[in-house]
Structure formats: structure tokens, C-alpha cells
Amino acid sequence: MAENTSRVAVVTGGSRGIGRAVVERLLADGYHVGYCFQTASDAAADIERLAEEHGVRVSATRVDVTDEAAVRAYLRQTEDTLGPIDVLVSNAGVIRDAPLLRMQAEDWNTVIETNLTGTYNVCRAAIFEFMKRGTGSIVTISSVTGVYGNAAQTNYAASKAGIIGFTKSLAKEVGRFGVRANVVAPGFIATDMTDSVSEAVRDRTVKKIPVGRLGTAQEVAEAVAFLASPRSSYITGHVLHVDGGIPD
Ligand code: NDP
């Protein structure tokens, strides 16, 4: 049953993994959803069908979040198609893991530009309309790596720690305009991103997770949907860990 039929959400990186689970969850909650991705998406037909089932609209667009002008144009186009945006989920992210000694500048730049500058680009493009309308909920996706650090992920950890500082600061700037900004910090979630991790690393990691398993994209989407919605109306600047209790 749709929770709210008039709200509009935008999700970056919505074609796969956590982003796709967020898109599906928000559609089920009755949002019209615009999502973007970087390369070809074979998810579009299934997501379209789901939107039809829930009586809401969805739009899928190829946009590189590192391209500020393209992101701006994308948000304006989404407003034209779906209506004023109420919820922004900055989820698009990449990894390029290597120990610092072996890390190339390109690996550093790609991760910082996609994860951190991409978050800046979408939030910056959305924020004025949110403030003008006196409403809006931003959810950024960090990682427990941004909180605790992780070997061979200096670039990723820096980008994800940056997202936390960015979002907490933004929450302080825009709270009095009726706009909220929160962070979800997932732990080890089963998606394409973690498929690339070796069996040995995966087994070692699972042993450290108190609940004894990887998380699912749907479990992260639950947290995102809560922070996106008015059910969390007095929560802002918060970092919600969805990590099965991973210790630091
Ligand atoms: P996936 O690799 O499964 O999906 C990444 C998504 O981001 C895809 O939709 C991809 O699009 C999109 N994307 C990547 N780069 C860009 C770009 N430049 N512009 C637009 N879209 C882009 O990742 P996950 O679902 O695992 O991760 C989603 C988020 O959650 C990321 O921010 C990640 O850092 C974070 N996270 C993930 C964890 C995990 O264990 N999986 C743990 C903690 C945080 P396309 O399909 O076109 O490439």
C-alpha cells in the first residue's frame, strides 16, 4: 500500500545494488522516482513494471555524477517530468582499492570525484529548491570504512569520511529552512561492489560481523527510506550504521 502518492525522490546510482533497492523501496512507499546511472542499465524494464504495480512513475537517465552541469540539467529535467523533488539520495559510488604505496593518482581521483564530488554536485543542484520550498530530505551513502578506516581503501575511506563531514555540515546550514540531511553508513553488503572481494577476505570479514553474515541491499534501503521520509522528521545530521554490528 503506497505510503505517500505525491512525493518525488531522486536516487543516484539507482540501476544496481543498494541504489536499486532504494529505488524499489521508495516506489513501494508511493514516491515517483527518478534515478540515474553511469553505463547501460538492464534494470529499467523491471523497475518500470514495479512502478506500474504501485501506480507511480519512474524515470531512468544516464548521468555521470562527476559532471556538475549534467547533474544540474538532470535535476531540472526530473522536476519537469515528475514534479518538485522532496527526497534526494546520493548513492552513486565506486571503489578502486590498492595499498597507498601502489595507489595511482587516477584511482584516488576517480573515487574522490565520484563519491565525494558527486555528492557535492547533486546536493548543490538540489538544495536551493529545497530551501525555497522549505522542505526536503537528503540521504547520503557513506560507509563504515569512512568511520573506521580499512587497509587498501585510503581513497574510499577519505571519500566516505568526507561525505559524513559534508552531510553533518549541510544539516547545520539548512535545518532552519526545513531541510534535513542524514547519512547511512552500510557495512559489508552483498552487491556487485563486494562481489569483487576475494573469498578469503569475505570469510575474514564475515567472522568479524556480530550477526554473522553480509547485509542485503534491502536492509540498507529500509534505513534510507526511513531517513528520507517524514517519519524521521526530527532527525538530521545523523549517521545511521547498517552494518550488522561491525566493531571498529
Ligand atoms: P554497485 O557497484 O552495485 O552500484 C553502484 C551504482 O552507482 C551503479 O548504479 C552505478 O551505475 C552507479 N555509479 C557509479 N559511478 C557513477 C557515476 N559516475 N555517475 C552515476 N552513477 C554512477 O554499488 P553498491 O550498490 O554496492 O554501492 C552503492 C553505494 O553504497 C556506494 O556509494 C557505495 O560506496 C556504498 N556502500 C556499499 C557497500 C557495500 O558493501 N556494497 C558498503 C558501504 C557503502 P552503473 O551501473 O551505470 O555503473
From TrEMBL:
It holds the Pfam family adh_short_C2. The active site is at Y156. The keyword Lipid biosynthesis applies. One of its GO terms (molecular function) is 3-oxoacyl-[acyl-carrier-protein] reductase (NADPH) activity. Pathway: Lipid metabolism; fatty acid biosynthesis. The keyword Membrane does not apply. NADP(+) binds at G13, G14, S15, R16, T39, N91, Y156, A157, A158, S159, K160, I189. Its EC number is 1.1.1.100. Residues 7-192 form the Ketoreductase domain. One of its GO terms (biological process) is fatty acid biosynthetic process. Keywords: Fatty acid biosynthesis, Fatty acid metabolism, Lipid biosynthesis, Lipid metabolism, NADP, Oxidoreductase. It catalyses: a (3R)-hydroxyacyl-[ACP] + NADP(+) = a 3-oxoacyl-[ACP] + NADPH + H(+). It is an enzyme of class 1 (oxidoreductase). Homotetramer. NCBIfam families: 3oxo_ACP_reduc, PRK12826.1-2. Catalyzes the NADPH-dependent reduction of beta-ketoacyl-ACP substrates to beta-hydroxyacyl-ACP products, the first reductive step in the elongation cycle of fatty acid biosynthesis. Belongs to the short-chain dehydrogenases/reductases (SDR) family. This is 3-oxoacyl-[acyl-carrier-protein] reductase. The lineage of its organism: Bacteria, Bacillati, Actinomycetota, Actinomycetes, Kitasatosporales.
